[in-house]
Every structure is written in structure tokens, then in C-alpha cells.
Amino acid sequence: MTKELKTTKTPKTAKTVKAVKTVKTKVEPTNFKEGQKKPTPPESDSIRKFYTTLFKQNKGSEMALKWCLEHGCLGNRQTTFAVSYFAMKNLSIK
Question: DSSP string covering the chain, please?
Fold first, then answer.
């Protein structure tokens, strides 16, 4: 017993695909604090908990101060202090 395979030919259709280029524009939120570069993570974020507790326990930690400043986790007085601190530090390095 032999089986015959039926092959059906479909007509060739030409499909034209147009590439659309989308350009993402960076929109900066208006609620960013001075010196903030990234959006503020939620309170439940583990990285935020780590850096905020590190800053509370060790006020001299530059790493924690910089992270909290860039993510907007500091209060107004601490933010102005951190901005001036890093501005002075950048001037002294150059």
C-alpha cells in the first residue's frame, strides 16, 4: 500500500513591510528633587531599604548619600547639604 501525498500550491503573495522608526524622547518629571537623576523607588524596594538604613546608621557614608540623593530619598535639608557637598567635592578633585 502506498500513500500519495497531496501538495497544494499557494499563490505567491508579495507582502510589503514598512519599518516605522519610533523615537523615544526623554521626559523628565517635574517632581524630581534637586540632584535627583532617577525615579524614587517604592518603600518596599529592598535596595532602597538597604541604602536608607545604611545612611541612618552611618551618616558619613558617601555611597549611601549619593544613592539616596540620586533617587530622591532625602528630605529637603539633607538634599541641599548633599548637593553642596558633592559640588564642593567635584571642585576640589578638578
Answer: --PPPP--PPPP--------------PPPTTPPTT--SPPPPTT-HHHHHHHHHHHH-TT-HHHHHHHHHHT-S-HHHHHHHHHHHHHHHHHH-
Per the model's pLDDT, the better-predicted residue between 13 and 70 turns out to be 70
**What is the total count of domains within the chain?**
1
pTM for the full predicted model: 0.65
pLDDT for the residue numbered 8: 64
Q: Which domain holds residue 82?
A: 46-93
pLDDT at residue 76, rounded to an integer: 92
